[in-house]
UniProtKB/TrEMBL annotation:
Keywords carried by this UniProt record: Cell shape, Glycosyltransferase, Membrane, Peptidoglycan synthesis, Transferase, Transmembrane, Transmembrane helix
Alphabetized Pfam families for the sequence: FTSW_RODA_SPOVE (PF01098)
EC number: 2.4.99.28
Protein topology in the membrane: Multi-pass membrane protein
Localization per record: Membrane
Reactions catalysed, as given in the entry: [GlcNAc-(1->4)-Mur2Ac(oyl-L-Ala-gamma-D-Glu-L-Lys-D-Ala-D-Ala)](n)-di-trans,octa-cis-undecaprenyl diphosphate + beta-D-GlcNAc-(1->4)-Mur2Ac(oyl-L-Ala-gamma-D-Glu-L-Lys-D-Ala-D-Ala)-di-trans,octa-cis-undecaprenyl diphosphate = [GlcNAc-(1->4)-Mur2Ac(oyl-L-Ala-gamma-D-Glu-L-Lys-D-Ala-D-Ala)](n+1)-di-trans,octa-cis-undecaprenyl diphosphate + di-trans,octa-cis-undecaprenyl diphosphate + H(+)
Transmembrane segments: 12-33, 53-70, 82-100, 106-130, 142-160, 166-183, 190-208, 264-288, 309-330, 342-363
InterPro entries (alphabetical): FtsW/RodA (IPR001182)
Organism listed in the record: Marinitoga aeolica
Family of the protein in this entry: Belongs to the SEDS family. FtsW subfamily.
Protein name according to UniProt: Probable peptidoglycan glycosyltransferase FtsW
Keyword presence, Glycosyltransferase: yes
Length: 386
């Protein structure tokens, strides 16, 4: 099988798996919202599901715009800087909002409640990849390769930590550090920086009291799982589903799972589709990540290529965290399941990022493919048919 047939198959598989995740997620969100009838009124449930559908449509539209603009995004001199200023302002603005459940994480845009920290999970790696693409040969310089990117990272992560949102801060920090690594900075600079960060982190943890009360409570509940109500209800739902599940839109335990439509949606999947359903979901995320990494090897634009790798890592890593929390492997974090959970901000940035990635695949691979290479492949195909 020739190279372009392999690439075509990988792109098709990537699109199919993303579509399956989004479609299944819509059914699971609907089912989990209906199971919240003891918490929300039927009117509230209907409005929330309508908002979810509207977010999918809006995000798909914005994803299409990202597809069209992707050809110019990484080549633009000022567009990415303007976006960086815009998202930083959103993070500052969110700190001025009225606290919800003791935190300041949400603002309302176009009638939709959004969480700016969700945008930074994928925008910051994209911005850093664009930054390294622009400085090119200066990556080996400690100031350009490490100091400036670390200043940008600590600025954004610091604002998110102040909300406070520890889980998002840690996840964004990990993604950003990984972005620095995949962009090929000097190894000695990178490893020395990591060592310094680890030493500084240990010092802060052992000598300061930086954790919020609810964060300490989550860690205590994780160490004593029997007292963790959310986890116990989630495990009961998954256990009740058995191997093959109770059936779509069927189940009893999901009615008692808090936030089953967002943080604990895997409990709904486990009860309705069983452990086989959970394995299927994990497989979907593995395929999305795997195909994206393999497709990235065909991209010549380093900014797009590196962002695709980080996006693939984020998809699998965040899904692992969400599932790990739901089955008791990790402490409760409030991290959603990509493409499947109810969450306007997460869904929006995910679909826009996919639109950008599909645009780079089209403009950097398909449109730029040499005409003579296409003709040669057609000749090979005709020969094979004969």
């Amino acid at each position: 099988m020739n190279k372009n047939k392999v690439l075509k198959n990988r792109i098709i598989l990537f699109i199919i798996t993303v579509g399956m995740a989004l479609t299944l997620g819509t059914f699971f969100v609907y089912s989990s919202l209906k199971a919240m009838e003891y918490t929300f009124s039927s009117v509230q449930i209907d409005k929330m599901f309508q908002k979810h559908i509207f977010t999918i449509l809006l995000s798909s539209f914005l994803g299409f715009i990202a597809f069209v603009l992707s050809k110019f995004i990484t080549k633009s001199k000022h567009f990415m800087n303007l976006l960086f200023i815009f998202f930083t302002m959103l993070l500052v603005l969110v700190l001025t909002q009225t606290p919800i459940n003791g935190t300041k994480r949400w603002i309302t845009l176009l009638g939709i409640q959004v969480q700016p920290s969700e945008f930074m999970k994928l925008f910051l790696p994209l911005y850093l990849s664009w930054y390294y693409y622009k400085i090119k040969g200066k990556k080996s310089n400690f100031t350009f390769g490490i100091i400036i990117p670390m200043f940008i990272i600590f600025l954004e992560v610091g604002l998110i930590f102040l909300e406070p949102d520890l889980s998002a801060s840690i996840l964004i920090f990990i993604l950003s550090i990984l972005t620095i690594y995949v962009n090929g900075v000097k190894n000695i600079h990178f490893y020395l920086t990591i060592a310094l960060i680890i030493i500084l982190g240990i010092f802060i943890i052992t000598n300061t009291d930086f954790l919020q009360g609810y964060q300490k409570s989550r860690l205590e509940k994780f160490s004593n799982k029997e007292e963790n109500y959310q986890l116990q209800q989630s495990l009961d739902a998954i256990t009740n589903g058995g191997l093959f599940g109770s059936g779509t839109f069927i189940g009893e335990e999901k009615y008692t799972v808090p936030y089953s439509y967002s943080d604990f949606i895997i409990a709904v999947i486990g009860e309705e589709w069983g452990k086989i359903g959970i394995i299927m979901v994990i497989t979907l995320y593995f395929l999305i990540s795997r195909e994206l990494i393999l497709i990235s090897h065909y991209i010549r634009n380093s900014a797009a290529q590196n962002f695709m790798v980080i996006f693939a890592f984020w998809i699998f890593f965040q899904s692992f965290i969400n599932i790990g929390v739901s089955v008791g492997m990790l402490p409760t974090t409030g991290v959603t399941l990509p493409l499947m959970s109810y969450g306007n901000s997460s869904l929006l940035i995910t679909l826009v990022s996919i639109g950008y990635i599909m645009g780079m695949i089209y403009y950097e691979i398909i449109e730029e493919q040499p005409t003579d290479e296409i003709e040669n492949e057609k000749k090979v195909e005709n020969t094979d048919e004969v």
